Amino acid sequence: MIRVGDGAATSSSARLSATALGSAIATTSRDAHLHSTSSQWLREKRLGAGLTIVPTPEIQDPLASVMKNPQLAEERRFCSACGEPVGRARDGAPGRTKGFCSACGTPFDFAPSLTPGELVGGQYEVVGCIAHGGLGWIYLARDRNVADRWVVLKGLLNADSTEAYDVAVAEREFLAEVEHPLIVEIYNFARHAGAGYTVMEYVGGRSLKDLRAERRTPFPPDHAIAYLLEIMPAFTYVHDRGLLYCDFKPDNVVVQGDTVKLIDLGGVRRMSDMTTPVYGTRGYQAAEVQQAGPSVASDIYTIGRTLATLVLDFAGSTGVHEHTLPPVDETPLFARHDSLHRWLVKACHPSPDDRFLTVEEARVQLLGVLREVVALERTGSGGATTSAASPLFGVPPADGSGGPLSWDELPALAADPTDPMTSWVAGVNLTDPAARMDQLALAPRRTVEVLLAEARAALQIGDLARVHDTVSQILALDPWDWRAAWMEGLAGLAGGDAAAAAASFNAVYGQVPGELAPKLALACACEQSGELGVAHEMYAVCARTDANYTGAAAFGLARVRLARNDLDGALDGLDFVVPTRGSYGDARLARARLLIGSGRGLPALAQAAEVIDDAPVPARMRTQVVVEALQRALDHVLVHGPEPDLRVAGAEATEPSMRDALEAGLRRLAQLTESRRARVTLVDRANSVRRWTLR
Questions:
Q1: 313 Cβ contact partners less than 8 Å away, ≥ 6 residues apart
Q2: What is the pLDDT of residues 182-213, one digit of tens each?
Q3: Which keywords does this Swiss-Prot/TrEMBL entry list (predicted)?
């Protein structure tokens, strides 16, 4: 069984040091315009991404959402100008719904301005109030001009005169061009009784805020992640059109059957807009917005904060943790799901430059986190049986049955298709690394792909100084390029500095928390540096998440558990190597030898002989294991007496049977041995155990 580590104190990667990247070494801000925000990359098409099943609420009858007696609770009444409380009870009398702010004199009116039956814009018949938002009451209505379809009417800011209405519509009409299946559609703008309204698609369903409140407990992490993964392509679409959403929170995602929709476009603005008011919600809005304004990075921050709110009992989200996350040692969810914690840390980083660069980048990494979360919660004790391709790394080329993976046995970096020199580098396919370095030095442009190829060639010839120099050049081009830290980690392993390698791989893990390659590399480095708790946790994550990683991770788990005197755990770890892996035979041999050396008596020796029965191992190795098991069994019988009901390699656990089987095994082993001297030695051993020599 794959077990979670020994707790945050020893297994969390958060306590490890990490190589400095990004803002810690940069001298300028990050340029997001250099990177793609394509929304087509790795798009999943169903809630849960095919990895988990998310309960979906029934689609509501629109009339069921209409409030019978629409009143805004007193604790939600604030002045629209200065933010001070208004309309509150005093001296036992209920608060007024209409009046003036005592602090600044601004008028307020919390009574609905529309009544059922009113016709807005000569087209939209009001049915009733369904909610109250930042711009007043929100109404359900029927569109009498379009088949009585349901629509929603929402107040339009600063539209209290004809001229102001025209200006307000001009400022917001770009929203009518937003057409995406995950975003509520804007149909029209209408004016009625001196007020302006936005006419929107009616989305029947429940908001994530309502669903979270009904539960009274946080969402299971896989469900919350699934909701966010489904809605994130809407942000990519908005950003690709030069817009920002600004005010994302659980209130603004409606679950409608097995789909979700982004509603409330009231805060959406153009990226170039530097004048209109910025809307945001405390606890969700990034700290820099008040001074620097909103950005793609601040939208990503709101996504991270929304996910944190859904999965945590986040009582301090508007107080002590308004701009921070609770510590790992106080948050069991973070201790259990380290990758989820690392994703939230990056998405909600205080520096906008150190967050994910695009929503799509964040989504791809969150999808990897979901795979890990689902794998941990999955019932059953086996390792992963499925795999998923990574856009950033290849797969482990070796399973490391003989020890921790070396630097060149870790997954290789995938080529960056956006680098202009990628094709040129692919054409430099010389097998000799020194010759390859000479050719790479002639590259027309020294892009990151060229430098990475040079660093790998330098590793192959053992020139670690050249690797470090190349890494410095990469970071000079882009201080946020985590691939530089990856190469630094490989150099650490190649040079025998496991602690430095662990720091580098830990930094990579923090940048791409949904990838398994950094976790496998970190496990290998920590195993060699003595950080066995972290090594165990990272190996376990890899073993249970992706079949391409199960082999290497299983051998790592076995080694770490054996180093911690956990023989049963080591045996369990080896069982995760499935017959489809090329290292299955090695795993069976390793398991047999652990059982032979366990000192657990005849049952363990019988198991040792059995585990290699169906294993694809060379005949000589198979025979050698059988001979070792029979020799230990004979020694045991001579000391502790026979156990006729037990069989080892098909022979009864009695002295005569053990001697006959061991003699036959030794002679068989001699036949399979090439060395004449070794054959003679084996035949002599066979003769020495024959029963007739003792008469």
A1: 217, 218
A2: 999 999 989 898 888 889 999 988 999 999 99
A3: ATP-binding, Kinase, Nucleotide-binding, Serine/threonine-protein kinase, Transferase
